[in-house]
Amino acid sequence: DWRKGGPRLWTINPPLPLKSISVTLSINDFVAGVSTTLNYENEEKVPLEAIFVFPMDEDSAVYSFEALVDGKKIVAELQEKMEAHRNYEDALSQGHQAYLLEEDDYSRDVFSCNVGNLHPGSKVAVTLRYVQELPLETDGALRYVLPAILNPRYKLSGKSANSCLNIKTPITPLEELPYTLSLVATITSQHAIERIQSNCSLNIPEVEASRSCGEFVFLMDCSGSMKSPMNNQKDSQLRIEAAKETLLLLLKSLPMGCYFNIYRFGSSYEKFFPESMKYTQKTMEEAVERVKDLEADLGGTEILTPLLDIYKAPCIPGHPLQLFVFTDGEVSDTFSVIKEVQLNSKKHRCFSFGIGEGASTSLIKGIARVSGGSAEFITSKDRMQTKALGSLKFALSCSADDIALSWDLPPGLLAYMLSPEQTVIFRGQRLIVYAQLTGTMPQVESSGEVCLKYTLQGRSLENRVTFSLQPKTNASFTIHRLAAKSLIQTKDLGSYETSQRTKEDVVSISIQSGVLSSFTAYIAINKELNQPVQGPLAHRVIPRPVMSTSFCACKVKSCKFYPNSNLCIMNSSKKKTNLQNDHKVIPIVSHAISLSFFFFYKGFGENVALQLILLQKANGSWELDEDLTKILGTNLEDIKAANPAKDGDPSAWATVLAVLWLHANGKDTKYEWELLERKAVTWLHDHAGRSTAPPIPFPLPQISGALFWPASIHVGRTLYT
């Protein structure tokens, strides 16, 4: 038996109990309200129990769970988890219908739903509701993703015995969907909505000049699962190959004078250098060659051990640690990892990247949140390079530090902070703070004031906001639930990492607010059947899907946008399957649906730009040689003849041509080479000084089929155009 309790009956190839999944999405500015309904029908002659394990974004505040059984609504009660389990098993043993919803003990982004004693012929619609903050993209857009893929998680021995991930669920290919998925979204905003798009990448705005200080450590997942494709599209790039290309770009983009190191990890780990090395031409070349040889050959995903090795190294004075973590997130005990990052949060920031469909949002968001960094997810057609370079720009740019809030309230009122402490905000990010006012509310209409103080580029600044103290009527309690979720995230580190006293606090907060935690569960029991369900209970485990390397056969029937009503409807096709397993299985949703405000973005093409970038030296310059001229599409003699400063350093001329080539041929990926260009122009300024070399004669030689117009570079008194 999977659990203690009554016997479960297994049969071979039964009908499928899960018929459809419908999602209703309501987006209001930066908050999403989601209602997901799972429709079941028992077409067999025996009672059933269906187990459904599914992913959900770790920021989701689940506040409602109910079942509609043959037209009768049963609203679940939130209870302490062990109590809920006992009541569920007791209800099943007495023949009552029972429904259980719980969060995994060891990962905040995995849930399981049990539908028990579904008697023959019965139809049940199980609905859960949650609210969630939407992540802000680097161009100011908001993105909503409906999680769908639940990857297998690498299990840490002895720590996750009670995880619902241990349920032996069969897997099925993504392209074999035996049921329908429908999604209806309503999007409203007090501001103008520029556009709505789905599954596209971003163009990114300009950021300020970078700093040369910092210790940059790159932690690269080389476990076996990194051999998987980025998505289920035809010709999708392998995760490890995309990660290698991204790491090469990051290495080339680092500023002179910083320190760096690279770790590769799986079941074991290796580091490129015994300790972080100063960024020079020699160390960069050595690292680049080793990155080219990286393979996904290190077995499981054990990230905690290399993290401990990184944290035990002494700090480098004047060079704060910036940790970049690249992983597909297939880790079981995420709370242990998050806790270790949190313990070291004062000495570093963590920029995390979830690679491919199904990366753990609990792990990726958790380690970024507790360290003051940022989290990104690379799925569908997203370019990892774009998002990684964006985070590097965050790490190199100025930030608002020493953040503090002060409150000016009437006598008798106090503000109690519910959000975790945040000490830094990067440009392009936002800060959301939840607080609870306690005490005696004034009888007359009055207001309060909150002051945000921070330091920016050495200057002390502040902003003040005045607000009314009279509460507004709002039956949805969206802000209250998000505030409770924020407080639970601060305290709840799973069964293994949370003290008993803190567990009791979390249970109390969860039950009072109605927001699910890892120590509570929703349970609903229907005791009003005409007669209790009789006979042994057949056990049905609903499996999670896997991504096949072939093109997904599922096709979207319709995707319609109605600008006037802000309504989006998307339905997937229905396809039957007959799997040759010990029993009939049902896959969960096969593909993520994302709704965002963002722009279409193209890639590097045939990676010619990457070849050019790999020729750049650590100081930002290029050598004038045959390798460069091959990329430029000309010959060395013609390039030398066109040099306006024939007696000067040919590297300056080569660097100008390389940068102009990027402007002419890599415009669509400019955000990925902006830091490289910045290094090059800085080197040209430092190298040329007050050069009086004449400007380049026009027209320039045609290189790779395009004239270098209208890009311009100023070097001293010389204008290269």
Brief digest:
The chain has 3 domains: 8-200 and 511-596; 215-397, Rossmann fold, CATH 3.40.50.410; 608-720, no CATH class. Helix content is 24%, strand content 30%.
Commentary on this structure:
Residues 2-132 form the VIT domain. Residues 277-304 form a coiled coil. Residues 215-396 form the VWFA domain. The chain folds into 3 domains: 8-200 and 511-596; 215-397, 3-Layer(aba) Sandwich (Rossmann fold); 608-720, no CATH class. Strand 2 and strand 3 form a beta hairpin. Helix 2 (239-253) packs antiparallel against helix 3 (281-292), helix 7 crosses helix 15 and helix 14 (650-665) runs antiparallel to helix 15 (670-688). It is globular. The strands form 8 sheets. An 8-stranded mixed sheet has the order 6-5-10-3-2-13-31-30. A 7-stranded mixed sheet has the order 1-28-4-9-8-27-7. It contains 15 helices and 34 strands. The chain is an alpha+beta fold.
Major sheet: order of its strands? 6-5-10-3-2-13-31-30
Biggest sheet descriptor: 8 strands, mixed
Q: Give the beta-strand count.
A: 34
Q: What is the share of helical residues?
A: 10-25%
Average pLDDT works out at 76
Shape: globular
Number of domains: 3
Total helices: the number is 15
Query: pLDDT under 50 segments (min length 5)?
Result: 1-12, 205-211, 548-605, 690-721
Q: Which value, in Å, is the CA radius of gyration?
A: 28 Å
Secondary-structure content class: alpha+beta
Strand content: 25-35%
Straight-line distance between termini: 74 Å
